[in-house]
Amino acid sequence: MSKIIKIFDTTLRDGEQSPGCSMNIREKLLLTKQLEKMGVDIIEAGFPASSDGDFKSVQMISNEIKDSTIAALARAVKDDIDRAWEAVKGAAKPRIHVFMATSDIHMKYKLKMEPEEVIKRSEEMVKYAASFCEDVEFSAEDATRSEPEFLAEIFDRVIEAGAKVINIPDTVGYTTPDEFYDFIMDIRKRSEHLDSVEISVHCHNDLGLGVANTLAAARAGATQFECTVNGIGERAGNAALEELVMAMNVRYDDYGFKSNINTKEIMKTSNLL
């Protein structure tokens, strides 16, 4: 039986961080409808707490889209989660996506928090998000520069708090395919609960390895790919949706993975963006 990889498109959120790629609400809705038509499983519509404009666009998209899950990003902060839920609560399939930094450098210099504080805050905020929405995703920002033992602990705690999807992002585009494969396998061995939920990956392309790293993660057990159309995104961009989908499609003999994407809609989507 084929392994189905869910496609999580973040063109409207991470993609918009690419210089020159801002869209107005009408353009965002047009692109979202095309993503839905193409068969994208999850569409990250934006970061509602970041601006009134983002909130309104996420809310409008949530009310229009019926087939795809609509996700809203939120920091591990109550106000962000409140804003995210307010924006996506009208969706047929809403998701709250909570993130928290987990690398030593981010915890020390950005969050100015001790590791145990980070675990406790993450656990509390995932539980809070789960009080609104059954579908909660947790992302460990800068995961590939975090300690596997620490990640296993925080993942177990947030899964017990209600997270249904765990995202292991290569936030700064630092890892390599073999290293990322070993890294995910190590965390899975250390964690009690990770194999009971969806494992997602979100790879940046700073070293030109976003697609390669994502495909390596699938071999290590990842079942959700976070990506963008045309690979747009902050800095060097994200793993490109069309490259991931076609790699799985053309080289199914090697990978053995499939997606729900209608490949005949890829060119239209790419041109539209």
Could you characterize what this model shows?
The chain has helices spanning about 25-40, 50-65, 80-90, 105-110, 115-130, 150-160, 175-190, 210-220, 240-250, 250-255, 265-270; strands spanning about 5, 5-10, 40-45, 70-75, 95-100, 135-140, 165-170, 200-205, 225, 255-260. By secondary structure, it is α/β, with parallel strands linked by helices. The strands form 2 sheets. It has an 8-stranded parallel beta barrel with strand order 2-3-4-5-6-7-8-9, surrounded by 7 helices. α6 links the parallel β6 (about 135-140) and β7 (about 165-170). The radius of gyration is 17 Å and the shape is globular.
Report the major sheet: 8 strands, parallel, barrel
SS class: alpha/beta
Rg computed from alpha carbons, rounded to a whole number of angstroms = 17 Å
Question: How many DSSP-defined strands?
Answer: 10
- What's the helix-strand series? EEHEHEHEHHEHEHEHEHHEH
Strand content: 15-25%
Separation, N- and C-terminal Cα atoms:
34 Å
Mean pLDDT: 97
Strand order of the largest sheet: 2-3-4-5-6-7-8-9
Overall geometry comes to globular
Low-confidence stretches: none
- Supply the number of helical segments: 11
- Helical coverage, percent range: 40-55%
Keywords:
273 residues; alpha/beta; 8-stranded parallel beta barrel; two-stranded parallel sheet
